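Service request form, structural biology core

Requester: graduate student, group of Dr. S.
Request type: structure prediction, single chain
Budget code: on file
Notes: please return the result as structure tokens.

Sequence provided:
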Amino acid sequence: MRTTLNFSHETLGQKVLFGFGQSPAFLAQEVSDRGAQKVMVIAGEREEAIARKVAARIDVAVWHSDVVMHVPIESANRAREIAEAGGIDLLVCIGGGSTTGLAKAIALTTGIPIIAVPTTYAGSEATNVWGLTEASRKTTGVDPRVLPQTVIYDSELTLSLPVDMSVASGLNGLAHCIDSMWAPNTDPINSALAAEGIRALAAGLPQIFEDSQSRSGRDQALYGAYLSAVAFASAGSGLHHKICHVLGGTFDLPHAQTHATILPYVLAFNSPEAPEAEERIAAAFGSDTALEGLQNLRRRLDAPKKLSDYGFRPENIEEAAEIILEKVPANNPREVTAENITALLTAALNGDDPATLG
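Core staff response, request fulfilled:
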């Protein structure tokens, strides 16, 4: 049987360096190669010790630790002013998605290049997507200026990430993979990258759950997170991410845990109307169905189960549904209505069986 292919794909230009324990040497070489004179290192207080170790071989003009989840516009503006006043010519972000997001916010208005050193599996470092929160609304966009020019992956830096956060962050990466299967610009290349990302994350996360110091598990999870982000950057934001951006930006729910919780509900909601994506996802998990594969993994990892654990309340559902309906991608496999998105949010709130949404 012959398959006819007809698609347009864009691959983002980015250098990736991957090596256990090699981030200080990698960073020093990148800074030297660029001839950067004034480097601003962005790292939250919890990542300060890691950041100082990574940056030990470079001269740092500014250390910036005012990192806030969902990147409030006020935080972004303060960081932009500091960068501009200091004549910064290179941004180095060391940390998770919020840290990378703040660097992107600075780059969006200043054009200062970024070197990203991720310590979680968020994947933001490999995308040209930015996000800012203002007046309880999260806005996202795409701009080539925010894509880090170099990403340094060093799984040694993730060894101190607690197992529960590793699981939530890894499932966030998995959400990038699954959303990429039916996002607005999905194509066969994105699907192939996403499927390999699912395989790598499904292999790595259980190793981390069983042994938080597993180098193999941490390597696989970082590798999978990178693939997931590359697929997502090209395919665009699907229903899952539209929902989670509303929950995070409007109700201040924690980023990784929200993604981890919502994922099985969106998969159960969309997959019956997307048979090719369903087949690919199931094959990547090595299971009979996509939802079965995801749920088997989530049970092994004791994954986040319900939104009520993170501050979402029944009285929030109506407002959330209204905002989500304004943001649903036009090509989502299944029509989204006020009734069925309310049912999805209610099930996720209570931790009900996702299979009821199919």
